[in-house]
Amino acid sequence: MINKISEINKRITKKLTIVRTSLLEDTNINNSQFEVLHYLNTNSDCTISSIARAQDVSRQHIQKTITSMLELKLVKTRKNRRHSRSAFIELTTRGARLLEIIQTAEHRIYRKMNRDYDKNELQLALKVLEQLDKQLESEVFSLYD
Question: Model pTM?
Answer without folding.
Answer: 0.80
